[in-house]
Write a structure and sequence with these properties.
752 residues; alpha/beta; Aconitase, Domain 2; Aconitase, domain 3; 4 domains; six-stranded mixed β-sheet; 27 helices; 34 strands; 30% helix; 20% strand; globular
Length: 752
């Protein structure tokens, strides 16, 4: 795999020419317009300026962790009807109530909203969000916005993006998605995958090369080259969904007869058109991949970029497992003992659990290939278990019809419904100290559902379904699919949408205002949020120095998601696995802001604020005279990798958070979530921090600084000895984003 250190030209979709070696009559600027990405973005841009895009999407989609909060935000902002098709899916339902909202209450909320506002409602267990979108929504040249980070349908010619809920709210209010024209990086494929190599192997190989160096961060990955034609539609989809883990903005692929066939199979031939770059296209970078060189891969805990070949791992077990232990010390803060070296038995690594599931692993070809490898074997009767979750009921039905389902069940595998449970820690949670291998999307700490706060830990490695099956056939001992020497049946897929016609509610875009929304008792409105004050006092209530802080660490998934429709209830879990003291600290500081909003004295509500204000007023005597906001902030080196769930930001906000301070934001979507919830996305230069956890910070004239687009914002650390000056920046903000921050959140911005 080769990463080019300059931009490249692609000639006739085949020849790579580094920018420094090119001699074309067409300019770089003109050639950049010949990418597939440019043509799609241009068709959806409403600004008239291709440097400053204002995008309107063709369709929207959400799952049940997010759609209640999104619709509640939109309702509070004046929603009357869904102006574009909006699909509400229920793939994250947690099977039973584990503390918060009864799942069916959220589902009935979704169904009645789909009726009232003119949407589509997909009941639980019918399809995971992304498979339904592939089967029923994607179309070549179109754009889809989803409230899940893995909203990626580029293999089907659809440029899709995963963002936090407020960005969907903007679309529901007929507003736009505003971004600068992103860079476009060519992912140039050549060769053919070797037997036993699946899409997850290719994806992990790419992630391992581009995540840490930020090669494609906030850019569009455009898959081109002669190797594309050597991949089936399912294979391309399996690679494409994992591009999220590179921190790219979106993805798009050239299309061909195999994608045409995909649309034919799904009864939507008219949604296909050929997409390919122009005769000479310019890309801001290029990743050149020879598919024949990719071997079965594994991403060890605690990140999809922690990659090795399975052969490499098996040959260097002690060294690599020791390295994982070092990563665990950082990720788990040394809170629980952690090792995988006790999984080594007679020189081989024993695995406790295998999972093939969801939008990444639950595809038809993955499951069929796994069944081929397992045929005639059993998973055994020791600790190892294998669960398979087909990505949709149509896939499940076809597996039943062609005999693959029976073949899998015969081995001892358990086949479950279309459900994202194991992907977010609400299904097949491993035992304490267990090690799980999964063809799913992520392996962040605690993502599998372990509870470090209770002294319990398990961990996940990512692998392709084929190597998981080979491991299962080997009774749990880690095995590369290349060791399987049998053949693959290559089962043909037949799509039957009857189940969707029988179960999915589709308003056909017709709203019925007479429908009463069905609220469960735990579905709560957003609390009132104050506008940004003239001056701001912030207490640092958490300080995180991990290289990357994921959204799952900011607000855990899993059982906490049962509180998803109750903003204050969910907020109680903020940073619960990373910094359990955070919530108490934030709520204590929030007392002062609540007092201000009630017209009372904040110093009475929060006595520790009195000496802070006395110090501030020595230099800023007018501070605090009806011009003060008080809240909390956190510092993290690089927060926001992972899920698009805006709860990572909104939970901080409802607890009185006014800002994040970071050296860098891992993803655009997390920074956007902060902004849309009225939080200041401060940036501070790398190096020793001028403040520490527990310190108070003062930002005089912050309202004016935001409104007047100050390049540098001066803050002060409040010490007993006086104010200590430091500087932060906000990065680029649109005028609308500045107004959202000034108003206090998107709801306030839109409220008439």
């Amino acid at each position: 795999m080769k990463l080019y250190d300059t931009g490249v030209y692609l000639q006739n979709g085949h020849d790579i020419i580094p920018a420094g070696q090119a001699d074309f009559p067409v300019s770089k600027e003109e050639a950049a317009k010949n990418t597939i990405a440019y043509s799609i973005l241009e068709a959806h841009n409403t600004s008239g300026n291709m440097e400053k895009l204002q995008i309107k999407f063709d369709k929207l989609t959400s799952h049940d962790i997010t759609f209640v909060g999104i619709i509640q935000t939109a309702r509070a902002s004046g929603l009357e009807r869904f102006p574009v098709p909006y699909v509400l899916t229920n793939c994250h339902n947690s099977l039973c109530a584990v503390g918060g909202t009864i799942n069916e209450d959220d589902h009935m909320f979704g169904l009645t909203c789909a009726k009232k506002y003119g949407g589509v409602y997909v009941p639980p267990h019918q399809a995971v969000i992304h498979q339904f979108a592939r089967e029923m929504l994607a179309a070549c040249g179109k754009m889809i916005l989803g409230s899940d980070s893995h909203t990626r349908y580029g293999a089907l010619g659809t440029m899709a993006m995963g963002e936090g809920g407020p960005e969907l709210v903007k679309q529901l209010l007929s507003q736009t998605y505003d971004i600068n024209m992103p860079g476009v990086v060519a992912i140039y494929l050549k060769g053919t995958p070797r037997p036993g190599v699946g899409p997850q192997d290719v994806a992990l190989a790419i992630i391992g090369k581009v995540f840490a160096n930020g090669y494609v961060k906030n850019k569009v990955m455009e898959f081109v080259g002669p190797g594309v034609q050597n991949l089936s539609a399912d294979f391309r989809i399996g690679v494409d969904v994992m591009t999220t883990e590179t921190t790219c903005l979106s993805s798009i692929w050239q299309t061909d007869e195999k994608i045409h066939e995909f649309y034919e199979i799904h009864g939507r031939e008219s949604d296909y058109k050929e997409l390919k770059p122009g005769a000479v296209a310019y890309y801001d970078g290029c990743v050149e991949i020879d598919l024949s060189e990719i071997k079965p891969m594994i991403a060890m805990p605690f990140h999809p970029s922690n990659t090795y070949t399975i052969d490499e791992l098996n040959a260097n077990l002690d060294d690599i497992l020791a390295d994982v232990e070092k990563k665990a010390l950082v990720s788990l803060d040394g809170k629980v003992p952690y090792t995988l070296r006790d999984k080594v038995k007679d020189g081989r690594l024993y695995v406790d659990q295998g999972i093939i599931a969801g939008c990444a692993g639950g595809g038809f070809e993955n499951i069929c290939a796994a069944a081929d490898i397992l045929k005639g074997s059993s998973i055994g009767y020791d600790a190892f278990t294998l669960s398979v979750y087909p990505a949709s009921t149509p896939i499940y039905m076809e597996l039943a019809k062609n005999g693959v389902l029976a073949s899998l069940l015969e081995t001892g595998a358990v086949v479950k419904t279309a459900f994202c449970g194991p992907c977010f820690g609400a299904g097949d949670t491993p035992a304490n100290n267990a090690f799980s291998i999964r063809h799913t999307t992520r392996n962040f700490p605690n993502r599998e559902g372990s509870k470090i706060q209770n002294g319990q830990i398990s961990s996940v490695a990512l692998m392709d379904a084929r190597s998981i099956a080979a491991t299962a056939a080997n009774k749990g001992f880690l095995t590369s699919a290349e060791e399987y020497t049998g053949g693959y049946t290559g089962q043909k897929y037949f799509f039957d949408k009857t189940i969707y016609e029988n179960r999915v509610f589709d308003s056909k875009g017709v709203a019925d205002p007479s429908v009463e929304i069905q609220f469960g008792p735990n579905i709560k409105d957003w609390p009132e949020m104050a506008p940004l004050a003239e001056n701001l006092v912030l207490k640092v209530v958490s300080e995180i120095h991990d290289p990357v802080t994921t959204t799952d660490e900011l607000i855990p998934s899993g059982e906490t998601s049962s509180y998803r429709s109750n903003p204050l209830g969910l907020a109680e879990f903020t940073l619960s696995r990373k910094d359990p003291a955070y919530v108490g600290r934030a709520k204590e500081v929030q007392k002062a802001q609540k007092a201000i909003q009630a017209g009372e004295c904040p110093l009475t509500a929060l006595p520790e604020l009195k000496p802070v204000m006395e110090t501030i007023q020595k230099e800023f005597p007018d501070a605090g005279k009806g011009n003060l906001g008080v809240g909390s902030t956190i510092f993290a080196v690089k927060p926001g990798d992972g899920s698009a769930r805006e709860q990572a930001a909104s939970c901080q906000k409802v607890l009185g958070g006014w800002a994040n301070i970071a050296n860098e934001y891992a993803t655009k979507r997390y920074r956007s979530n902060l902004i849309n919830w009225g939080m200041l996305p401060f940036l501070i230069k790398e190096g020793e921090l001028p403040f520490a956890n527990g310190d108070y910070l003062f930002f005089p004239g912050i309202q004016k600084a935001v409104a007047e687009k100050a390049d540098v914002i001066t803050g002060y650390v409040v010490k007993e000895s006086g104010l200590q000056k430091f500087e932060v920046t906000l990065g680029e903000l649109t005028d609308d984003e500045r107004e959202i921050i000034l108003k206090g959140c998107l709801i306030n911005y839109n409220r008439k």
